[in-house]
Design goal:
Number of helices: 8
Distance between the termini: 40 Å
Radius of gyration: 23 Å
Length: 248
């Protein structure tokens, strides 16, 4: 019991500390002291743990200072934690609009787009809560079916339970998909003004094309110390120095 109480107290203290520190950082942001606000937000991330709203505010600071690659990076990190947030998506689109490379992603099957949009319409926590509530309602429907004598109520119970089972399955699938993306971070943002993409991990290899800061890449191979193989949103791929990109 003492252990549980201690855990609760520590959690409450952490929440209060986070809120207070974030309020101080927000105050600096409102005063347009973006440099100090950045230091405050980064301190929160380091000491209090990651949070979508902190990454979002940090991205806003970098955007105000015209540090577009860092703005894109932090907006992407915020979106990874809360993919259903419309403000994050809107600001990310603004930041990416200032990058040099205007990428048109390759077309994909409609059901792939549909599933990704469904998965990203809410955060992991929201999908988890949805699944829990749906599971409780499903159990309630089963109990109605077995213990309520009225035929109409039993039909409502069984069909409602079936519907809630579908919601439980979808909620868990979406939550698992987002958790996988969080755990296996295989995307990165180009941080250098311009990077020459090579055909192999060597300075002497053939130059393929040029990529600029703020572009998003998928990491295909990071087994080498100084080079990573990446794929760009339009489908092209090649090798770049590992120092040229930062993982989202």
């Amino acid at each position: 019991m003492k252990k549980i109480i201690s855990t609760i107290i520590l959690s409450l203290f952490s929440i209060i500390s986070f809120a207070a520190t974030k309020a101080e950082a927000d105050a600096l942001y409102e005063k347009e002291n973006y440099t100090d606000a950045i230091k405050a937000y980064e301190s929160i991330l380091q000491n209090e743990g990651v949070a979508a709203e902190v990454y979002y505010n940090l991205g806003n600071c970098y955007y105000k200072l015209d540090e577009i690659p860092l703005a894109v990076l932090n907006y992407e990190r915020a979106l990874l934690l809360d993919p259903g947030d419309g403000d994050i998506r809107a600001n990310l689109a603004l930041a990416r609009g200032k990058t040099i490379d205007k990428v048109v992603p390759p077309s994909e099957m409609f059901f792939v787009t549909w599933w990704r949009d469904l998965t990203n319409c809410m955060s992991i926590d929201a999908w988890t809560y949805t699944g829990i509530i749906a599971f409780i309602l499903m159990l309630a429907g089963v109990l109605v079916y077995f213990f309520v004598p009225q035929l109409i109520a039993r039909k409502v119970g069984v069909y409602g339970a079936m519907l809630m089972l579908v919601v439980v399955i979808i909620s868990n699938a979406c939550s698992i998909s987002q958790r996988f993306d969080l755990k296996n971070r295989n995307t990165a943002i180009i941080m250098l003004p311009a990077v020459t993409v090579k055909s192999s991990p060597s300075d002497k290899s053939t130059d393929l094309f040029l990529i600029h800061e703020g572009s998003k890449v998928e990491i295909l191979d990071n087994s080498m110390k100084e080079w990573i193989e990446v794929k760009f949103e339009e489908g092209k791929q090649g090798w770049i120095p590992s120092s040229a990109a930062e993982v989202i």
